[in-house]
């Protein structure tokens, strides 16, 4: 059977595909820097690290103007396009923070033994921030990190950019998986070169298994999505594509469920990989090559194993129920005292001594037991509704514009699973998980837009040619006279 030749691309298509503009290079470099730094540093949530993030992210805002200048095509109403993913959400977040500054919850009292703090219940309809000054760098650092990630919805002009970026992200996840498994097999009590107390449930450079679980799920679905893309690029010739590499990454990320201490995280990873196995079986059924029939048989085995292990870890999780219920009750009491605007960033650990019950004495808990409770405590019900509304708007807009494709759909599946996970655990306290969530969300949305439009029409109105009677373009009839038509 004669093989089909790949289509020959013209110079313009090659230029658009393989060459980054100056703004794309800046965006790509900073994104990779943040992905690596935030996932490898154990203190990525510290004020020092978030201060550096604030400086770099704020400086990178100039990249939007660079993009407008160096983009090879005209961008219609560029700053209006910037407003809905960037300016409007940031203004709302800043209003929340400034509103909390009017009613500081903490009051310092100087005693002989040292400083002591008391906390007051906030006034109705006025925000309440526990520690405005000390939280300002952390808050602005996280806001600036979100601002930078929105550039991925605006700057990439080709699928090649996003493919390359996600490729590096998956490779970073693979290396972290190897390091984490190495630590587990050698029974390390803490990551290497880190001076800290023993942590029984850390993985790689993630302080908790629950944080790693969300990170693994996000990049597991991304790896599978890239594998399908690479198979299609290689015309479904498995041996000649790098799809094997991405299938391996997804499998290794799923295998970390076997060594995690957190039963909920392990169960979510196992069930997530079972979903991927179902997707693979359906995909392999459409292909006639013998290798895919053999792979389908192995995938059935992995599907049964994943479901069985997920069920086992789900039932095992009931042993932690009493402590979790006590923490949830404590968190809910905090939320009840400031239900509209919340208590501010990192409020749980500061309020815990004042709300803790007898079941939680002599123990220190840094975060709320679930992500949704943590968000309600810090931002209140209004803040949670605004964040959920923003995410819903982006996803519904993509859905109604009918931009479905395999890579974006796989990434959206991973994002939805992590959103479900925050009702059971608190993964977004880790900055690497939070940034990965934003990066993958905006990459999936931009990919969906690029794959359904030519490169020169993505950010430009489609009505490039209009009727003659509406045109007013000069053309030369003779060297001395111009006529407008």
Describe the structure.
This protein has 485 residues and is mainly α. The protein has helices at residues 11-18, 22-40, 47-60, 62-70, 78-101, 132-149, 159-185, 209-233, 243-255, 263-285, 290-316, 321-337, 347-355, 371-400, 406-421, 431-451, and strands at 106-111, 114-119, 474-478, 481-484. It has one domain (23-475). It has 16 helices and four strands. The strands form two sheets. Strands 1-2 form a two-stranded antiparallel ribbon. A two-stranded antiparallel sheet has the order 3-4. A hairpin with a 2-residue loop joins strand 1 (106-111) and strand 2. The chain is globular. The chain starts with 10 loop residues before the first helix and ends with a strand.
Average pLDDT works out at: 80
Distance N terminus to C terminus? Answer: 56 Å
Major sheet size, sense and barrel closure: 2 strands, antiparallel
The low-confidence runs, each spanning 5 or more residues with pLDDT under 50, are 1-6, 107-112, 481-485
Q: How many domains, in number, for the residues?
A: 1
Shape designation:
globular
Beta-strand fraction estimate: under 5%
The structural class is: mainly alpha
Strand order of the largest sheet: 1-2
Percent of residues in helices comes to: 55-70%
- The radius of gyration is 25 Å
Task: Sum up the structure in keywords.
16 helices; two-stranded antiparallel sheet; globular; mainly alpha
